[in-house]
């Protein structure tokens, strides 16, 4: 892995990570707003993600069409994102035009128009996506499971909200969220590529020069995830021909000593074609048309997810099979070959996800936000290489307990 070199600076309240990599002629930058759906209050569900998506849909000075034209004229690519712990705006371009691209990005951050017509267009897009998720067995089951797994916490509602939430969002709500949450002191700016740190810092200083800092900024979600959650959720859809099951266990934050072992335990279970779920439930027992596992890690904690799609007559057997396979890892150490496959799979995916400037910037931002130290991004493969079979079993034994199970059946 290429040595990680970055400079951490504070510019008019904005925390900045600057990673110059001279010679490529390219650069990527992101302004990450460290507020997401976890920070929404009652009546605001879906608002954080919706507002972030509206920022690139026109400003007080440019329509959405003009903004798109200006970015295209620079040869720059821009995107927005919204999620559980935060969202942001990103831009990639040649190093030569990056200052002009950042002018547009900061204009979008600071001066969004929140045009009524654009808001309605985006509303219909979000509603269409939600309708599609209602018809997708995995997404429907997972969304209901999520509400049960994290009931009573900010992580317990989907980032995009429910259809009723989206229907209720209006221009005033977006303006309130933007004014309260998109502030210099809530932003982490990350830049990677062909630039000089001093010049980049000077550019950000100029773009944020008259942006006032708000001492009353609402704090981020800090509440501990409640330990209590319902063990079983039964769902029904009459039009289905097949069933779907999601099983989940609570997991700790990335800073916890058990996290590397749990990350590899997830891969042992069901990531890739060599995982236990794929080999045993799909290939050997023919119980699955879709099966796998994933570990979702948020700033304050997370969850280990197992899922399987199966025939109506094998729903109960498939649900039991997911628990049996996780119990096997809790009770037995993986053999060296099994653990090495999982380790190489996880490390390989991690390194392949660092090919571009934008990917490297996103990676260090994630570690800075979730672990408090971007330098841990470079240490991650070595931490995985140090995990032993015993550590995988012991971590699973501690954390893979009291599962929440969501079962979707034809009615």
Structure description:
With 411 residues, the protein is an alpha+beta fold. Helix content is 45%, strand content 19%. The chain contains 15 helices and eleven strands. It has helices at 47-54, 64-74, 98-110, 116-135, 137-149, 163-168, 171-181, 197-207, 259-270, 276-284, 315-331, 336-352, 357-371, 376-385, 389-399; strands at residues 7-11, 14-20, 26-33, 77-82, 87-94, 187-193, 232-236, 242-251, 290-297, 302-311, 404-409. It has a six-stranded mixed β-sheet, with helices on both faces. The protein has a five-stranded mixed β-sheet with strand order 7-11-8-10-9, with helices on both faces. A hairpin with a 4-residue loop joins strand 9 (290-297) and strand 10 (302-311).
Unreliable segments of 5+ consecutive residues: none
Assign the structural class, choosing from mainly alpha, mainly beta, alpha/beta, alpha+beta, or little secondary structure.
Answer: alpha+beta
Q: How many structural units, i.e. domains?
A: 2
Mean pLDDT: 94
N-end to C-end Cα span: 51 Å
CATH fold category name of the largest domain: Cytochrome Bc1 Complex, Chain A, domain 1
**What would CATH call the class of the largest domain?**
Alpha Beta
Order of helices and strands: EEEHHEEHHHHHEHEEHHEEHHHHHE
Treating each run of at least 4 consecutive H or I residues as one helix, how many helices?
Answer: 15
Overall helicity: 40-55%
Largest sheet: 6 strands, mixed
Q: How many strands in all? A: 11
Shape: globular
CATH architecture of the largest domain: 2-Layer Sandwich
CA radius of gyration: 22 Å
Placed side by side, the strands forming the largest sheet appear as 1-2-6-3-5-4
CATH superfamily of the largest domain: Metalloenzyme, LuxS/M16 peptidase-like
């Amino acid at each position: 892995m290429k040595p990680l070199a970055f400079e951490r600076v504070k510019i008019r309240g904005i925390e900045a990570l600057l990673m110059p990599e001279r010679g490529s002629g390219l650069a990527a930058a992101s302004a990450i707003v460290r507020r997401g759906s976890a920070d929404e209050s009652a009546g605001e569900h879906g608002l954080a993600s919706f507002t972030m998506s509206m920022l690139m849909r026109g400003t007080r000075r440019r329509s959405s069409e003009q903004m798109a034209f200006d970015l295209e004229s620079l040869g720059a690519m821009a995107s927005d994102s919204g999620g559980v712990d935060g969202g942001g705006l990103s831009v990639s371009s040649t190093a030569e035009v990056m200052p002009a691209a950042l002018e547009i990005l900061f204009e979008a951050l600071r001066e969004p128009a929140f045009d009524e017509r654009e808001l309605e267009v985006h509303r219909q897009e979000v509603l269409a996506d939600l309708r599609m998720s209602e018809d997708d067995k995995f997404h429907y089951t997972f969304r209901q499971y999520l509400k049960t797994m994290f009931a009573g916490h900010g992580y317990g509602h989907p980032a995009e909200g429910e259809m009723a939430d989206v229907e209720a969002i209006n221009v005033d709500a977006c303006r309130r969220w933007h004014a309260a949450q998109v502030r210099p002191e809530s932003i982490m700016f990350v830049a990677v590529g062909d630039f000089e740190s001093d010049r980049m810092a000077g550019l950000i200083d100029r773009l944020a020069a008259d942006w006032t800092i708000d001492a009353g900024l609402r704090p981020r979600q800090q509440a501990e995830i409640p330990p209590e959650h319902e063990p079983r959720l039964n769902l029904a859809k009459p039009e289905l021909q097949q069933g779907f099951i999601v099983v989940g266990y609570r997991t700790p934050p990335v800073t916890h000593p058990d996290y590397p072992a749990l990350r590899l335990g997830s891969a042992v279970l069901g990531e890739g074609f060599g995982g236990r779920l794929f080999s045993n439930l799909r290939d050997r027992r023919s119980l699955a048309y879709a099966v796998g596992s994933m570990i979702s890690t948020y700033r304050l904690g997370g969850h280990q997810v197992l899922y399987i799609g199966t025939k109506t007559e094998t729903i109960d057997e498939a649900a039991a099979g997911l628990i049996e396979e996780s119990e096997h890892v809790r009770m037995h150490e993986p053999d060296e070959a099994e653990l090495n496959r999982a380790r190489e799979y996880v490390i390989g995916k991690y390194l392949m996800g660092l090919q571009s400037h934008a990917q490297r910037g996103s990676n260090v931002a994630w570690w800075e936000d979730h672990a408090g130290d971007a330098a841990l991004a470079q240490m991650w493969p070595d931490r995985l290489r140090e995990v032993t079979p015993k550590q995988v079993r012991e971590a699973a034994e501690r954390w893979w307990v009291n599962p929440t199970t969501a079962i979707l059946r034809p009615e």
